[in-house]
Specification:
Structural class: mainly alpha
Largest sheet: none
Radius of gyration: 20 Å
Order of helices and strands: HHHHH
Distance between the termini: 29 Å
Helix content: 55-70%
Number of strands: 0
Strand content: under 5%
């Protein structure tokens, strides 16, 4: 089974919208080269149909492209363990700041009896998260699970 193509959009003046459309098109092109099961392809085709069904209202089209792209990325990550470039790095940076940085900052602030030192933990947590995420991205690349595309929202 083949993945459907996105409809070409005429008269778009918004460069951000054009870039989002091209990014989704590139994602679909990369997925077409992979061996995906039929359920995943059917779901991807449903998302493509949703984008193609939207009229040229820019706000509505932009929202649908973002929603469909997110659904496709979540689906291929869940079903086939495929991820975009820097996926884990972006995810773990936020996790590192929240799960490691804030508690460390509270500990620093408590030990120094000055909660102004709470902010010290955030960059430490960010570095920990970046290290973990970069390592996971490298592992995904080595295993051939990384798509040659960086998703920009």
């Amino acid at each position: 089974m083949k993945i459907k193509e996105l409809k070409k959009i005429k008269e778009l003046e918004n460069n951000k919208l054009v870039n989002k459309h091209l990014q989704l098109k590139d994602l679909l092109t990369l997925l077409e080269k992979r061996e995906l099961n039929t359920d995943v392809i059917n779901t991807i085709n449903t998302e493509v149909d949703k984008v193609n069904a939207v009229s040229n209202l820019e706000k509505e089209l932009k929202n649908q492209i973002i929603k469909s792209q997110s659904n496709i990325i979540n689906l291929i990550e869940k079903e086939h363990k495929l991820v975009a470039k820097n996926h884990y790095r972006k995810t773990w940076m936020a996790i590192g700041m929240a799960a490691f940085g804030l508690p460390m900052g509270v500990i620093f602030g408590s030990l120094m009896n000055n909660m102004a030192f709470m902010g010290i933990g955030l960059p430490i947590g960010m570095v920990i998260g970046l290290a973990v995420g970069t390592n996971m991205d490298k592992k995904a690349f080595d295993e051939g699970r990384q798509l040659n595309l960086e998703i920009k929202y």
